[in-house]
Write a structure and sequence with these properties.
The chain has 413 residues and is of the alpha+beta class. It has three helices and 22 strands. Strands 4, 6, 7, 9, 11 and 12 form a six-stranded mixed beta sheet that branches. Strands 15, 16, 17, 19 and 20 form a five-stranded antiparallel beta sheet that branches. Strand 13 (209-219) and strand 14 (228-238) form a beta hairpin. The termini are far apart.
């Protein structure tokens, strides 16, 4: 082998090795390069698997973000003092295959009548945290190309007179479109999504849930020894200054010690300060013991990651009537039958005694006998006087005399 061939081979290997190192370095630099303000994102299921976007359907969302890209916080949890300022970012994402225009705004959060979490409708004005949120401009409208996102900065300025406790709002993105109804009318369609903002202003915290309007209705059964169902309705109001959920326990206790507990009682969702939700719970297996008492107890639940001041459980109770009418009717009928049987037996005995006639007090073996107490002399009129008078009736026995006075024989009239 010639020396020149050896140098050629060495140079070839060195060039290949250099190319490989350059390629690896390029790939590493690309993987570490920062994302731009607008980036292409796939359409995702909840599981995180990329799927094709549906045609003619605009899928979009909002997400917590840093200044450069979306992050995984999920919600905004802020703490501030009165007069404080907070700066952050939100990502607006267009998952669909078509360009879409969105209206971005900050607004108050509310509870629906069913207790759900929602943003204040677009045609209503905010009065709390929604008025503290500032975007780059009011009525901000952004247009996003298919499968892109946009990072939007926002500012929260806490008033100097802000009250202590939780203030809740939403950064929303609204898609405004129109649809044709079946009757041919064009309707304006508003589709809104948002990311929650929980801002706690420093000061005394008062977590409190109040249970009011407790009402009860008992539905019994035809079985005199069976159990019924108690339907319990009540209203839960957040009367404190901390957003709370709750684990509920509902049971019914009877006058004679029985107790029935409701199964599968739903949790109370996050209830914002000042809002209420109605609850309806059925307690099965309640034995009617005339007077029953319903007990409602709620153990508070707090926002994950927030400070949880000690409070609760919050309780309420109320008594109601659960009268076992069928059992009472059976007992009354039995009592009437027993009383009637005793009265019938007494009347029968009286009738039997009346048929047999009265019993003589002296007894049958003493009738017609003379009784002469010691020291008394019996007096007799003699049989000759009766014969002289021509009395042909049978002779009567002389009447005994006690202590010198005559009296009639016992048992004779």
């Amino acid at each position: 082998m010639q020396p020149s061939d050896t140098r050629i081979r060495r140079s070839t290997w060195l060039s290949l090795l250099t190319s490989a190192l350059v390629s690896c370095a390029t790939a590493l630099l690309l993987s570490l390069a920062p994302a731009s303000a607008q980036m292409t994102v796939p359409s995702l299921h909840a599981s995180g698997t990329a799927v094709p976007a549906k045609k003619n359907v605009v899928t979009f969302g909002t997400q917590t973000a840093s200044a450069t890209k979306p992050d995984s916080r999920g919600i905004y949890l802020f703490g501030a003092t009165p007069g404080g300022r907070i700066e952050d970012h939100v990502a607006i994402l267009n998952y669909s295959d078509q360009t879409a225009t969105f209206l971005i705004r900050g607004t108050d959060a509310v509870n629906t009548p069913q207790g759900g979490f929602a943003a204040l409708p677009i045609n209503e004005r905010s009065h709390d945290l929604g008025t503290w949120i500032y975007l780059p401009r009011s009525d901000l409208t952004v247009t996003l190309r298919p499968r892109t996102d946009l990072i939007v900065p926002f500012l929260i300025e806490v008033p100097a007179d802000a009250t202590p406790g939780d203030h809740v709002g939403v950064i929303t993105a609204t898609l405004v479109s129109s649809v044709i109804s079946k009757s041919g009318q064009r309707l304006r369609l508003l589709q809104t999504v948002g990311t929650r903002i929980f801002l706690r202003v420093s000061g005394p915290l008062r977590p409190s849930l109040t249970i009011t309007w407790l009402a009860l209705r008992y539905q019994g059964t035809l079985d005199p020894f069976g159990t019924g169902t108690a339907e319990i309705t009540y209203t839960v109001t957040n009367t404190g200054n901390v957003a709370l959920g709750g684990l509920q326990t509902v049971d019914v206790s009877g006058l004679f010690g029985s107790r029935a507990t409701a199964a599968h009682v739903p949790k109370i969702g996050l209830l914002l300060p000042g809002f209420s939700v109605k609850q309806k719970v059925e307690v099965k297996g309640v034995f009617p013991e005339i007077l029953e008492t319903a007990h409602v107890s709620i153990r508070p639940l707090y926002i994950a990651g927030s400070v949880a001041p000690r409070a609760g459980p919050f309780q309420a109770s109320r008594s109601f009537w659960a009268i076992p009418w069928i059992l009472i009717a059976i007992i009354v009928v039995v009592i009437l039958l027993v009383v009637g049987w005793f009265r019938w037996r007494r009347r029968r005995r009286r009738a039997r005694d009346a048929t047999a006639g009265p019993q003589k007090p002296g007894g049958p073996d003493r009738v017609g006998k003379q009784v002469s107490p010691p020291g008394d002399v019996p007096v007799s009129n003699g049989s000759s006087e009766r014969e002289a008078a021509g009395d042909e009736s049978p002779a009567k026995e002389p009447t005994p005399v006690v202590s010198g006075r005559a009296r009639k024989p016992l048992g004779l009239k």
